[in-house]
Amino acid sequence: MMIRAAMALAKPGGAAAHLQVFIFHRVHARPDPLFPSEPDATRFDRLCTWLRHWFHVLPLDEAAERLQEGRLPARAAAITFDDGYRDNHDVALPILQRHGLTATFFVATGFLNGGRMWNDDAIEALRGTKLSRLDLAGTAAESLGALDLGDWPARRRALSQVLTAAKYLPATERAAFVAAVLGASQVRASDRLMMDDAQVVALHRAGMQIGGHTVHHPILRRIGDTEAREEICSGKAALEALIQAPVTLFAYPNGVPDVDYDARHVAMVREAGFTAAVSTSMGCGDRHSDPLQLPRFTPWDASRTRYALRLLQAARWRGQRAG
């Protein structure tokens, strides 16, 4: 009760309301040693218990609208997932339903039905390889040299190196870079990481919201305006055809303002007919926030008290402003 009361003070309702938007990507069936801070089913169930008791969890479209109108309740929150991983349907959905919570799932349509994002090739390689050392000499990723994979901390450091080196490369160079890492690892990456069409439809029919996340998850500032507009609009159209309903919510890939997207892309999102969109700018939204650049934040702390304290601290942060 003390935490709930503190949340009500830190996150009031009405004209002074704050909107806490949580961001998740995956919920693993079991703990993942490569990503120890990423929730597994047991931890996500525990998080949902906390969120259900501490917050008034709303659908994101309703929360965004009520925020702008000054009608948001105290302790308001929304839950979001990015990318379209299969475990969103298989693991997260039953837990959300058990707790009576709703969430928005932002889906990159180009990876449905057996596709993989580039970063998952690197992740699959370093999680699954039996090698204790990855020698990349003579490959498209030779700038990394040899990577120590002797234990899980070493693999986490190696993965950070790979992702950092590849993230902002042009798409064709990045694909070759990551393919070299995957090839050297002697791992065959899974083609069942992402949802299929039927699972997206099942989320929608279960009362969850489906949002746009482009087709191929490009960093919008790294591609031309014509291609960026096509990515935004085609992803929206594909999802609307799939669920037979309007798609009015959007998440910017990567999502750091003025690094991964800028004002041009906000305008494209508005022109495409989205009414609310989320970034990865840390903090809480308020009535002055741009509804097409709402911030998101999820604590990484494992303990209940530290998790709550981090959320209370986040109430002081603000995301992008309107205008």
Task: Describe it.
The structure is a single chain. The protein contains 11 helices and 9 strands. The strands form 3 sheets. Strands 1, 2, 3, 4 and 7 form a 5-stranded parallel beta sheet that branches. Strands 5-6 form a two-stranded antiparallel ribbon. A two-stranded parallel sheet has the order 8-9. The chain has 323 residues and is α/β, with parallel strands linked by helices. The two termini are 38 Å apart. The relative contact order is 0.15.
List the SSEs and their pairings.
Blueprint: H1 2-10, E1 19-24, H2 41-54, E2 56-57, H3 60-69, E3 76-83, H4 86-99, E4 104-107, H5 118-128, E5 133-135, E6 146-148, H6 152-166, H7 171-185, H8 197-205, E7 209-212, H9 225-243, E8 249-251, H10 263-271, E9 276-278, H11 304-314
Name a few traits of the molecule.
323 residues, alpha/beta, five-stranded parallel beta sheet, two-stranded antiparallel ribbon, 11 helices, 42% helix, 11% strand
| Beta-strand residue fraction | 5-15%
Number of strands: 9
State the major sheet.
5 strands, parallel
Helix tally? 11
Weakly predicted, low-confidence segments: none
> What proportion of the residues is helical, as a percent range?
40-55%
N-to-C SSE string, H for helix and E for strand: HEHEHEHEHEEHHHEHEHEH
Mean pLDDT: 94
Tell me the quaternary state. Answer: single chain
Class computed from helices, strands and strand pairing:
alpha/beta
